[in-house]
Amino acid sequence: MTEACIVGIGIHPFGRTEGVSGLRQGEFAARAALADAGLEWSQMQFAYGGSDAAGKADTLVSQLGRTSLPFVNVINGCATGGSALYGAYNTIRAGEFDLGMVVGFDKHPRGAFDPNPADWGLPDWYGETGMMVTTQFFAMKLRRYMDEFGISTASLGRVAVKAYRNGALAPHAWRRTPVDIDTILNSPMVNDPLTKFMFCSPGEGGVALILASERKARELGVTGIKVKGVSMRTRPSGSFEVFAPYLDVERGSSASVVASRAAFDMAALGPADIDVAQLQDTESGAEIMHMAENGFCRDGDQEAWLAEGRSDIGGELPINTDGGCMACGEPIGASGLRQIYENVVQLRGTAGARQVPGTPRTGYSHVYGAPGLSAVVILQC
Amino acid sequence: MVTARPAHHPLATDPTPRLIAGRDASGRYVFPLPADGEYQPVELPRQGTLWSYTVQRFAPKSPPFRGLLPFEPFAVGYVKLGATLIIESRLTGVAFDAMRIGMPMELTTLQIPTAPEGEMLTTFAFRPVTAGST
Fold first, then answer.
1. CA-based angle A294:A299:A300, to the nearest 5?
2. What value of ipTM does the predicted structure carry?
3. Fewer CB within 10 A of the terminal residue: chain A, N end or C end?
4. How far is CA A273 from CA A223, A227, A289, A378, B127, in A?
């Protein structure tokens, strides 16, 4: 079977870049990925790309070159990047093409997202009465989890401390100043128990990856990072997802649990085999819950993990080594690809001050978003 | 004062507040009742227990939110209604620091002042069960 690998990566710094459109940030990332791979746009046989709020990715051909390549636009919420990679990976695996690009970018206005209920199949009153707010969901899923599994507020603070500490070491991060735990815990409450410094913000940025079949990579004389597992899954019955006017009494698992298992099965690897992980950290609690949903620890064990620094760079499983969404912000179309970018940098051993020690060989990334979908990518070098 | 209730709102108020959900042939509940007629309307229990909660501390983006500014923080939660469903709802009549998972709650109505028309939006809410409640 044809396997795919990542042979080029590029990123436009995350955060706020006044006067530069999301599309231009995608173009910047695309050119950086081509330069990184030592390739030309004219060599790209296909592309997948998308943004949630910053335009149609295929219009990038106006800037990059009108080569008539097939360019599939992907719009899949927070899993836009993951879904684009999924498409590109399968295009290569099917043997149709052997070299192509995945690009994701976005540019969101300040503040929380402002969803239209009808777009989500929900009645207007749900939004009118103030319940269609993503941050409420994160807070209520977390509140329940904390009660059930004994997670402390201090743990929420520790996750945020780690995010800003790691972000300070990542050139592409937005928030690059360490923040102490007292400042985090005492910052204004947004949705109890989550304070302002425990949340990520919608932001801007662009990421591009170049995928090749292993044979093509050898032909080009480049060493790629292998894509060992790719999955994208929607919510199962009984899960607790964002924008849910009701939940089933009979509780089930989550989109993340299902996506994680599928990716591990495909890669023939397990959580213990992973050396570095990027997990969706829309807020502190999401990282904590996603540690368990992705199989890296049991429910409740996060309390000890965080107290002992096991998810720090240098810990047994470093998590969100570039500061994650909390330090990088969340441009929806680019966010999942940033996680993959960070894992490639770590597996190449070129992460500088934030490099995971001990030559990591496997990287795991997990993105989650509304209305309950997750994408997981497992890389190996 | 004008009061209004949006289309397909699940609250019935005659004679007492009731929430209307849907139930399909397999017995599965959905909320609110879909308009397509595939589900039988079914009245949900009026009492339940608080399953999770938070406080909305900032004004949600408007639209879709119609609440009046300046914004007043409000409580919101999920209430488990017996063996039927766990419903997301505004919470009322409870101090923010008194909310606890498992506390008994009962259905009531809530009037939300809206901007800019000044009309009241009537919706459902849950409040703690107090002594003497039925």
1. 135
2. 0.91
3. N
4. 22, 15, 20, 11, 49
Residues of A in contact with B55 (CB under 8 A): 189, 191-192
- The answer, for A114 touching chain B at a CB cutoff of 8 Å, is yes
Residues 6+ apart with CB under 8 A from A46: A69, A70, A71, A72, A88, A91, A96, A97, A100, A101
Count of other CB atoms within 10 angstroms of residue A35: 12
- Report helix, strand or coil for A169: coil
Among A356, A335, A337, CA closest to A8: A337
Cα within 13 Å of Cα(A373), Cβ side: 17
- Cβ-based burial of A155 (10 A; exposed 0-12, middle 13-18, buried ≥19): buried
**Between residues 79 and 98 of chain B, which touch chain A (CB distance below 8 Å)?**
80, 82-90, 96
The residue among B122, B126, B120 whose CA lies nearest residue B104 is: B126
Predicted structure pTM score:
0.94
A73, burial (CB in 10 Å: exposed 0-12, middle 13-18, buried 19+): middle
Q: How confident is the model at residue A7 (pLDDT cuts 50, 70, 90)?
A: very high
- Candidates B112, B19, B23; CA nearest to B72 is B112
**CA-CA distance, A90 to A373, in Å (whole number)?**
19
pLDDT of A212-238, one tens digit each? 999 999 999 988 999 999 999 999 999
Q: In angstroms, rounded to a whole number, what is the distance separating the alpha carbons of residues A367 and A337?
A: 9
Chain B CB contacts of A136 under 8 Å are: 54, 56, 76
B128 cis-preceded (ω within 30 degrees of 0): no
| Angstrom distance (rounded) from CA A69 to CA A76 | 22
Q: Which of A220, A218, A341, A355 is nearest to A275 (CA)?
A: A355
**Which of chain A's residues have a Cβ under 8 Å away from the Cβ of B74?**
130
Distance from CA of A294 to the nearest CA of B (A): 23
Phi-psi region of A59 (alpha: psi -120 to 50; beta: other; left: phi over 0): alpha
* B34 contact A CB<8A: no
Cβ pair B71, A234 in contact under 8 A: no
CB A99 within 8 A of CB A4: no
B109 touches chain A (CB under 8 A): no
A273, A362 Cβ separation under 8 angstroms: yes
